[in-house]
UniProtKB/TrEMBL annotation:
A Pfam cross-reference name: Aminotran_1_2
Enzyme class: transferase
A GO MF label: pyridoxal phosphate binding
N6-(pyridoxal phosphate)lysine PTM sites in chain numbering: 226
Catalytic activity: L-histidinol phosphate + 2-oxoglutarate = 3-(imidazol-4-yl)-2-oxopropyl phosphate + L-glutamate
Signal peptide region: none
EC number annotated for this UniProt entry: 2.6.1.9
Protein keywords: Amino-acid biosynthesis, Aminotransferase, Histidine biosynthesis, Pyridoxal phosphate, Transferase
Lineage: Bacteria, Pseudomonadati, Campylobacterota, Epsilonproteobacteria, Campylobacterales
Swiss-Prot/TrEMBL cofactor(s): pyridoxal 5'-phosphate
Protein name: Histidinol-phosphate aminotransferase
UniProt similarity note: Belongs to the class-II pyridoxal-phosphate-dependent aminotransferase family. Histidinol-phosphate aminotransferase subfamily.
Amino acid sequence: MKFNKLLENCKIYEAGKPIELVVREYGVKQEDIIKLASNENPYGTSTKVVKKIQELAKNMFMYPDDSMYELKEALGEKFDVNSKNVIIGAGSDQIIEFLIKAKCSENSKILMAKTTFAMYEIYGRQEGCVALKTEDGMHNLEQFEALYKEHNPEMIFLCIPNNPLGECLDKEEVYKFLEKVSSETLIVVDGAYQEYAAYKDPKKRIDPKELITKFPNAVYLGTFSKAYALGGMRVGYGIGDEAIIKTLYKLRPPFNITTLSLAAAIEALKDQEFVNECIKLNFKEMKRYEEYAKKKGFSYIESYTNFITFKFENKYISSDVAQKLLERGIIVRDLKSYSVNAIRITIGREDQNTKVFKVLDEVLDELKK
Ligand SMILES: *Cc1c(COP(=O)(O)O)cnc(C)c1O
């Protein structure tokens, strides 16, 4: 059967391996598996949110409030923007999809860093876009500028901080770059890990309201999947100029998040204390990973997120390390699919990380032989 020919150039997104697969394939007991592959919040969901969902579970026969009034109001208040500047998606992933569909068509150009969130290119290819990538893996704004000038792309993606590498541009350098970009170019600032970056270094903090006021052609993306610990609920948001948001609504399917997801996001926003505590612990534990890398003599990328990337250069092969960890029940992300000889590890809880170091010691010893 023939399908849409644009799909011939599309890759399937490779998600972090699920716990169930490790149980099935390697016979590791479910309770012994440590999953640090998808940058979920390892401290679990706030108990306040869990309680709320238990209370509301009986409502799942009903469609959610499609206007998402309460959540949009809460986000509007948090970021000091009008709810007309907000759109909710099934993860911020869905907003990326809306943005590309809204702006691009066949042969449109989209500009991004070489090693960045895979969904920009995947959604782009579905529309027949051409992905332009910088030579450097990490965000290099000089290279962005050169490619922008040469190709005049329809869209630019900035992942701040960047997944899967963890580096983070300064707000001021981002603004300086955006001043050179035409108001006809749609800018996406993906802030999936902004809560972490803003805590570690205020210079990295991007204020959505300031961003879209200075640059009405920019859209800010946020998610409940990481710091807010709701990855399984699939809630994200976009903040942008009213005219852009209105256009995105034309692409939004009805009831695009669930009744319980909506309630969970609203409740999660109320428990800021939980989020702050998780972020604090994250960076405390990250120090241990940095020290571990130094001790083992390989490098890491300074991270502004809830994960760290270990680079193996010519010391080890990342897929060997990831595979051996997997067989022992520790799931990390091999960056081989990004053509980088590195692994990305979500920063776990203290007990999990202690075990990671112990198992990693064994694995690296074995691979040395
Ligand atoms: C996790 C992530 C997202 C969005 O995830 P959703 O679960 O779809 O909200 C977006 N961008 C980056 C860079 C991410 O790491």
